[in-house]
């Protein structure tokens, strides 16, 4: 069978999957193809808004508003001082337009952290209803949480899981109610001195998710958190901490969106994941930021003996994204699987990738990156695989594939293999290309327009990511791609 024939079969498979998905009752799932559900501005009331700009006074005020313990304030202040000393990154995307003095670092809506949607203010609740969150929680989630600008407005986990000891709450609640766990793990995987934006997050963090799964407990359905930036010139700095004890399993999904303004906003989250012996953690991100958002995120997991960590990371929207999910394979037999996809349109730079550090014997990692660029959009893949001395019998494979839909677009690849042990197996491969004219001809001969055919080919190209998603999220992701592909053919 030729490569072209194989590609046609892949496309046919994708079309069949998409057609099957579209037969579902969209209204029941709470999804629609209306792009305005992401971009509408919510008229919200705020009870606290700190002045623009960052200072020690702002850091102290955030900590005081939350009535935090002394150790957290001390950590915040150390992080703030490091942030001031740390220069902006000289590599990657151009961040010269980031103005830290024009950002609001804390803005709290007039909404309590509710455990019932009835207690969420009506205007804010309508925003999340348009995004399908309440309906999704009822249909196929073990728990849900939502953050609106600086604070969480809703968080709840199923009662049966709560009785088993599963904790799913926002980070502020976790610090109050489970201080010993937070103190034990906070900043251990990503210290505040890791990079400039991790330092910024550690200084001004607010909200985020805390997940704790006790030994041998398996959470049957995903937990989801949704992060919404609503205000102008807003900075959102959620902090997420996920801990799976020995033998535990959990799937966490985060969604992100924001309305579009003429001025920039900043999203600088930190995510720390700890997978203990024989545990399994999957972390899925489906973001659709507005084009004025700088998305500068640090995500890292530590996998102990025989643990398995998956990052499924989809990057759509934003002005600039710099994000490289990482796994530290710290225990013998630990495994990592990282799938990253990015879509860059006009004026967008998606600088994404992945990292895997083999720190113990018999560890394995797989990194797969898929990117699409159009209308002068720029995608870049940065991948690092490091195998230290003594990490014998480690195995790793890194692959990045890119499609450029026009001559104005760009795709760069920056892989790095750092191997200090002889008894290992590592490799890297990359492809960059255009949409196949043979594939277009085949699909258009079957009655599709050029727009439809190109969209279907791109969906097939991204299928290795999409097929890993729960069905409902595959629907949403396919529709995001369809929206991004609108007017892709000039």
Please outline what is shown here.
With 490 residues, the protein is of the alpha/beta class. It is built from 15 helices and 24 strands. The protein has helices at residues 3-22, 26-29, 36-39, 56-65, 70-85, 122-130, 133-140, 159-163, 171-177, 179-185, 196-204, 437-444, 450-461, 463-466, 471-485; strands at residues 46-49, 107-109, 143-148, 151-157, 167-170, 209-213, 223-228, 235-236, 239-244, 249-257, 265-267, 270-275, 280-289, 293-303, 308-317, 320-323, 326-329, 335-344, 349-358, 364-373, 378-387, 394-404, 410-419, 424-433.
The separation of the N and C termini measures 33 Å
State the low-pLDDT regions, or none: 1-9, 11-38
In helices, the fraction of residues equals 25-40%
By DSSP (H or I, 4+ residues per run), the number of helices equals 15
Give the domain tally.
Answer: 3
Proportion of strand residues: 25-35%
Q: Count every beta strand, where a strand is a DSSP E run of 2 or more residues.
A: 24
> How confident overall, as mean pLDDT?
84
Largest sheet: 12 strands, mixed
Gyration radius, rounded: 22 Å
Report the structural category.
alpha/beta
SSE map:
Layout: H1 3-22, H2 26-29, H3 36-39, E1 46-49, H4 56-65, H5 70-85, E2 107-109, H6 122-130, H7 133-140, E3 143-148, E4 151-157, H8 159-163, E5 167-170, H9 171-177, H10 179-185, H11 196-204, E6 209-213, E7 223-228, E8 235-236, E9 239-244, E10 249-257, E11 265-267, E12 270-275, E13 280-289, E14 293-303, E15 308-317, E16 320-323, E17 326-329, E18 335-344, E19 349-358, E20 364-373, E21 378-387, E22 394-404, E23 410-419, E24 424-433, H12 437-444, H13 450-461, H14 463-466, H15 471-485
Parallel strand pairs: 3-7, 6-9, 7-10, 8-11, 9-12, 10-13, 11-14, 12-14, 13-15, 14-16, 14-17, 15-18, 16-19, 17-19, 18-20, 19-21, 20-22, 21-23, 22-24
Antiparallel strand pairs: 1-2, 3-4, 5-6
Helix pairs in contact: 1-13, 4-5, 5-11, 9-10, 12-13, 13-15
């Amino acid at each position: 069978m030729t490569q072209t024939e194989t590609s046609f079969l892949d496309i046919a498979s994708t079309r069949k999957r998409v057609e099957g998905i579209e037969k579902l009752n969209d209204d029941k799932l709470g999804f629609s193809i209306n792009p305005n559900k992401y971009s509408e501005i919510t008229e919200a009331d705020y009870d606290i808004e700190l002045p623009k700009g960052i200072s020690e006074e702002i850091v102290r005020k955030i900590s005081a508003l939350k009535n935090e313990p002394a150790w957290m304030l001390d950590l915040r202040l150390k992080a703030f001082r490091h942030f001031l000393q740390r220069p902006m990154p000289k590599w990657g995307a151009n961040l010269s337009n980031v103005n830290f003095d024009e950002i609001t670092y804390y803005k709290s809506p007039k909404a309590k952290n509710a455990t019932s949607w009835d207690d969420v203010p009506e205007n804010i609740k309508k925003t999340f209803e348009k995004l399908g969150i309440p309906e999704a929680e009822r249909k196929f989630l073990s728990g849900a949480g939502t953050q609106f600008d600086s604070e969480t407005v809703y968080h709840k986990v199923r009662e049966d899981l709560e009785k088993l000891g599963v904790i799913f709450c926002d980070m502020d609640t976790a610090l109050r109610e489970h201080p010993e766990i937070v103190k034990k793990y906070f900043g251990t995987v990503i210290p505040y001195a890791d990079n400039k934006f991790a330092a910024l997050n550690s200084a001004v963090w607010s909200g985020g998710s805390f997940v704790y799964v006790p030994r041998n407990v398996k959470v049957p359905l995903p937990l989801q958190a949704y992060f919404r930036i609503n205000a102008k010139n807003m900075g959102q700095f959620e902090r997420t901490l996920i801990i799976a004890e020995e033998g535990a399993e959990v799937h966490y999904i985060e969604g992100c969106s924001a309305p579009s303004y003429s001025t920039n906003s900043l999203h600088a989250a930190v995510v720390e994941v700890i997978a203990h012996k024989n545990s399994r953690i999957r972390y899925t991100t489906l973001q659709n930021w507005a084009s004025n958002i700088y998305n500068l995120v640090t995500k890292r997991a530590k996998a102990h003996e025989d643990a398995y960590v998956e990052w499924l990371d989809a990057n759509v929207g934003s002005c600039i994204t710099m994000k490289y999910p990482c796994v530290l394979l710290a225990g013998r037999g630990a495994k990592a699987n990282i799938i990253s996809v990015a879509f860059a349109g006009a004026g967008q730079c998606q600088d994404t990738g992945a990292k895997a550090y083999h720190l113990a014997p018999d560890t394995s990692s797989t990194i797969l990156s898929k990117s699409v660029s159009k209308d002068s959009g720029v995608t870049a893949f940065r991948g690092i695989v490091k195998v230290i001395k003594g990490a014998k019998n480690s195995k790793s494979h890194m692959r990045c594939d890119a499609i450029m839909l026009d001559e104005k677009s760009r795709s760069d690849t920056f892989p790095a293999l750092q191997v200090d042990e002889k008894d290992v197996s590592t490799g890297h491969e990359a492809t960059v290309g255009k949409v196949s004219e043979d594939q277009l001809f085949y699909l258009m001969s079957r009655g599709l327009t050029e727009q439809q055919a190109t969209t279907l080919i791109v969906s097939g190209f991204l299928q290795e990511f999409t097929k890993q998603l729960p069905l409902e999220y595959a629907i949403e992701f396919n529709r995001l791609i369809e929206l991004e592909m609108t007017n892709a053919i000039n």
